[in-house]
Amino acid sequence: EVQLVESGGGLVQAGGSLRLSCAVSGLAFDDSAIAWFRQAPGKEREVVSCFSSSGTITHYADALKGRVTISTDNAKNMVYLQMNSLKPEDTAVYYCAARNWVLCTWDASLYDSWGQGTQVAVSS
Questions:
Q1: CA–CA separation, 30 vs 88, rounded Å?
Q2: How many CB atoms lie within 10 A of CB 48?
Q3: For the chain, percent helix, then strand, then coil, each to nearest 5?
Q4: For 55-85, what is each residue's pLDDT tens digit?
Q5: Residue 113: pLDDT over 90
Q6: CB 103 within 8 A of CB 50
Q7: What is the largest CA-CA distance in the chain?
Q8: Ordered alpha helix ranges (H), 1-124
Q9: Beta sheet of 78-83, edge-to-edge order
């Protein structure tokens, strides 16, 4: 059974930084794609960034481009999302998701496993 557990969210002032972590178990990193999504109140869930085991990193959220970095530590089965220069509009629940396929996609329905989410709140 695949389990994803996010951590690292919290309240931060605009301009600040956060590093979100996703602990992954039950999934082989070498044959999967792992993505970060976010969902703000009243909005649809959107993909932020995705790491494929092929080594490809795909950034989807234009609003975050240049301000986020996705990385992995395969030895620890961890995926990270470093977010800098945070803005109030980045406030959302951030989710880690995994699919048993090497290709990243923006389509949330194609991810097989999800974490419970971690809240990020950015104050102005």
A1: 35
A2: 23
A3: 10, 50, 40
A4: 787 877 788 889 999 999 988 999 999 999 9
A5: yes
A6: no
A7: 41
A8: none
A9: 3-7, 18-25, 78-83, 68-73
